[in-house]
Design goal:
alpha+beta, SH3 type barrels, Alpha-Beta Plaits, 3 domains, 5-stranded antiparallel beta sheet, 10 helices, 8 strands
Length: 304
């Protein structure tokens, strides 16, 4: 299996560690300090190999898990939910594994152990100082955990943040990466999603409604517009055949506001459908009802 190759290096390190530990216990040399150094290196390699193996195991579980929950499917809300939670939990667990491994390695050294005891003695003061200095970082980490639990956003959610339309590409512990429609990346701190309002177009489903506004003269035939909208939707593969509505939403002094409401399977398709409907409806007016295009009227009254 392919994942067995991932364990080759950790297993080699583990074998080396056990070999060094064995040598330090079996060989009888005059130089006792050398044996202690060999034993120390073996202990360090043993901790590194165990931590490395745990991280690889976690990533293999993640790969198998993600194969089961594929986000490329149309109805992928459940898959995106699990992807979001697993990605954040993976980062937390890896961080803890590395932190514990570093702590265990450091505790092997007598000098570091003594320093640790003195640090614990003054832990109260240090805790206050570190807490004040790192309160923003701690808030960001807690926000990342809250995103994993409450999930106001998920991987591949379509959002509007800071007037930018894009998809959630990555959710880390302290920040979120939004892939903007023009391929730029917007880096947003995790705390943003709990401090400021934003739009999530795919919070409960990937299906979405699209609106197209058209401004015409008062002489336009609304029945003709409705028939043309229906015809355009029926021949378009972008329409999901659910919503097809045309309404007059406003009457301005020089024009009438007509809104076409259509539906699509996801936000990207809805955008393409809106562009298509807007273009074709304008062409329809130009060819069949040119007198119904918006006009500015000026009434000149002559003196008799």
């Amino acid at each position: 299996m392919w994942y067995i190759k991932k364990f080759i290096i950790p297993f080699l390190i583990l074998f080396s560690a056990l070999f060094l530990k064995y040598i330090s216990k079996r060989l009888e040399l005059v130089n006792q300090e050398f044996l202690e150094s060999v034993d120390m290196v073996g202990s360090v390699l043993l901790i590194v190999s165990m931590a490395w193996s745990l991280i690889i195991t976690l990533r293999i579980i993640k790969f198998i898990f993600f194969e089961k929950y594929d986000t490329s499917k149309e109805n992928n809300l459940r898959s995106r939910k699990f992807h979001t939670q697993f990605n954040i939990l993976e980062r937390i667990i890896i961080f803890l594994i590395i932190l514990i491994a570093i702590g265990l390695v450091l505790m092997l050294f007598e000098d570091v152990r003594r320093i640790g005891i003195s640090v614990f003695a003054s832990a109260g003061v240090m805790g206050i100082i570190i807490g004040l200095a790192a309160q923003r970082i701690i808030a960001a980490v807690l926000a990342g955990l809250q995103i994993a639990i409450t999930q106001p956003i998920r991987i591949d959610d379509v959002v509007i943040i800071e007037n930018e339309w894009g998809k959630i590409e990555e959710i880390a512990l302290t920040y979120v990466v939004v892939n903007i429609w023009d391929k730029r990346r917007l880096i947003v701190p995790s705390t943003y999603f709990f401090e400021k309002p934003f739009q999530n177009w795919t919070r409960t489903t990937s299906e979405i409604l699209g609106t197209v506004f058209i401004y015409t003269d008062y002489h336009v035939s609304f029945d003709a517009l409705r028939k043309e909208l229906t015809r355009l939707l029926e021949i378009s593969p972008l329409w999901d055949k659910k919503v097809n509505v045309l309404q007059v939403t406003d009457a301005k002094p020089n024009s009438v506001e007509v809104r076409a409401l259509v539906s699509a399977k996801d936000s990207s398709t809805a955008w393409d459908l809106r562009v298509y409907i807007r273009e074709k409806m304008i062409e329809f007016l130009q060819k069949n009802y040119p007198e119904s295009l918006p006009k500015t009227r000026i009434l000149v009254e002559g003196k008799h």
